[in-house]
Task: inverse folding
């Protein structure tokens, strides 16, 4: 079988080759061809335009992540099945808990040096800091990531509010409500975590009105997609201290291959002292790659053997969801 890994995922070709063994051709490609058919038994990518999907001749589009907003699923040829993978929930949950503890402990407010000369004054004037225990965390999205975050937050004694499309009760949350009622819970939210998929229902979900409804002491954490929070509204809320702090791991612009300069936003978020800005690394661990590519290799073996595939998000003609 011919498997092609595109763009940033091309670096994982040796890993996938080792997992699959003989009988498979695994080719890394910097980018897809600009014209003509795109032929491969399996294409591994998180980006596929409608035009590229129209040229695709493949049995399986394997998305090496959970997000599908970069793939034109509806434009795939009838015989192509699309699958995704998760496995990022563990490191993302750890990242979120780090940002919560960083926020409540306020370690950044302390002097960075403790020596014989600074110690007496620092000890005398040391400030009180907060506690995570007893605070309310509202999770917008309560799938793989949301549940892992909730598990860890509950261990800290936090109260969990789950916000989903339908708001069905969930034993992992203290309260569940539909996204249409999100604004009702914002005034009591200490930590707002965005961990939902990006679609037309969530794009711009957190705008000026939602940010105005939050506590001035609140922390916002975005590990979903940048566009779930309205760009200008978030910048202004942080700049004007309408919310205390944000931790943002996802951005409004990403550099293209060969692009030397690329601001992550139209606004100077980098100037804000109350922002923890990270370069989309919350789930970026070696353990993530090991787990994901083990599952991708298993899906390719299933395809070769005619067995049902795992994590089907769009079934090809004549294929059933596995």
Result:
């Amino acid at each position: 079988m011919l498997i092609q890994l595109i763009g940033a995922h091309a670096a994982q070709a040796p890993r996938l080759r080792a997992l699959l063994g003989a009988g498979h051709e695994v080719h890394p490609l910097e980018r897809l061809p600009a014209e003509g058919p795109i032929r491969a038994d399996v294409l591994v990518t998180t980006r596929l335009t409608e035009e590229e999907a129209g040229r695709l001749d493949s049995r399986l589009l394997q998305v090496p992540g959970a997000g599908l907003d970069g793939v034109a699923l509806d434009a795939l040829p009838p015989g192509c099945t699309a699958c995704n993978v998760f496995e990022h929930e563990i490191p993302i949950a750890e990242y979120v808990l780090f940002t919560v503890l960083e926020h409540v402990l306020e370690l950044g407010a302390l002097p960075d040096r403790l020596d014989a000369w600074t110690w007496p004054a620092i000890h005398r004037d040391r400030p009180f800091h907060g506690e995570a225990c007893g605070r309310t965390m509202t999770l917008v999205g309560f799938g793989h990531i949301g549940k892992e975050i909730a598990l860890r937050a509950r261990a800290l004694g936090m109260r969990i509010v789950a916000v989903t499309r339908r708001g069905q009760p969930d034993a992992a949350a203290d309260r569940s409500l539909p996204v249409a009622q999100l604004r009702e819970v914002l005034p009591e939210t200490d930590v707002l975590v965005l961990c939902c998929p990006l679609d037309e229902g969530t794009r711009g979900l957190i705008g000026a009105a939602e940010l105005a409804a939050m506590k001035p002491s609140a922390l916002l954490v975005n590990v979903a997609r940048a566009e779930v929070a309205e760009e200008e509204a978030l910048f202004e809320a942080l700049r004007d201290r309408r919310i205390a702090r944000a931790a943002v791991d996802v951005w409004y612009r990403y550099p293209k291959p060969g692009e030397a300069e690329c601001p992550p936003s139209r606004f100077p978020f980098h100037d804000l002292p109350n922002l923890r800005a990270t370069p989309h690394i919350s789930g970026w661990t070696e353990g993530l790659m090991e787990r994901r590519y083990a599952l991708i290799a298993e899906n390719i073996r299933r395809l070769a053997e005619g067995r049902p595939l795992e994590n089907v998000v769009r079934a090809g003609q004549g294929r059933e969801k596995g």
